[in-house]
Amino acid sequence: MAGVSHKQQLEIIDGTPEKRLFLSIINDYDLRTGLCELVDNAIDLWTENGGKGSLNVQITLDDARQIIYVADNAGGVRENQLRLLIAPGASRNRASKDIIGTFGVVGKRAGVALGELVEIRTRHKKEKSLQIDITKDWLGSEDWSLAAYEIPDIDPGTTSVTISQLRQRMDEDDIEALYSHLCATYSWFIEQGCSIIFNETPVIPIVRLVGIPARLRAAAHKLRRATDRRQKAQCHDRSRTDS
Q1: How far apart are CA 29 and CA 236, in angstroms?
Q2: Each residue of 64-86: pLDDT tens digit?
Q3: What's this model's pTM, rounded to 2 decimal places?
Q4: Among 28, 79, 149, 189, which residue's Cβ finds the most Cβ atoms within 10 Å?
């Protein structure tokens, strides 16, 4: 069998990742994980832009219509960076201790994991307003091309994500548990000027829950007590090990 005496190109191999990579992560996400990644993305973009002004994140969970809506004023996505929303592994993040998520995950992991239809609308500063739609049909095709649309103007510097055709139904208990988790997770960021509104109720650090509806306040305190018990148990286990 004849060989070659030097390296020669035979063919171009298509290295485009298969779309089932999107679907392979669905089982790793639940409502809490997906929603927090959406919030993390907004905080990261706000941080990357210097934390100027007040960051406002609005979250609406409509259990009657089974729709998730998340909007922020973190700065919006430039037209030439829209691919970050769909390209697996793509990121605009620079190495930083302040970055807590991966910008672009909005369209890739969190959105796709939560629902079969993800509609992302964004406007960087006062540039044109844009929209991309990640659909079940697009995920099922072999073509990676995705249309971007110019839409009537939305507020400058904003991004919104609407997720429907949810993969897992959510109910009132899920909503209460998520509110408690947001209070516990984002306390520090709220103190730094980040405002998170959850179903028209401000997300407030657990130590400042006065004025919050009783059911949500009770759920938040329940989460804090459970966290305290877990931490005490861990300390007790460590002391027994040390002795």
Answers
A1: 32
A2: 999 999 999 998 888 888 877 77
A3: 0.74
A4: 189
- Tokens standing for 17? 């990742």
DSSP string computed for 4-23: -SS---------PPPTHHHH
Among candidates 97, 138, 134, 85, which has minimal Cα distance to 112?
A: 134
- Report the C-alpha gap between 75 and 69 in whole angstroms: 18
Q: Would you say 106 and 120 are in contact if contact means Cβ atoms under 8 Å apart? A: yes
Q: What residues contact 137, with CB distance under 8 A and at least 6 apart?
A: none
The enclosing H or E element of 37 equals helix 31-48
Q: How far apart are CA 132 and CA 107, in angstroms?
A: 9
The predicted-structure confidence for 8-59, as pLDDT tens digits, reads as follows 444 554 556 666 666 676 777 889 988 998 998 888 888 777 777 889 999 9
Which two structure tokens, joined as six digits, stand for 9? Answer: 């190109």
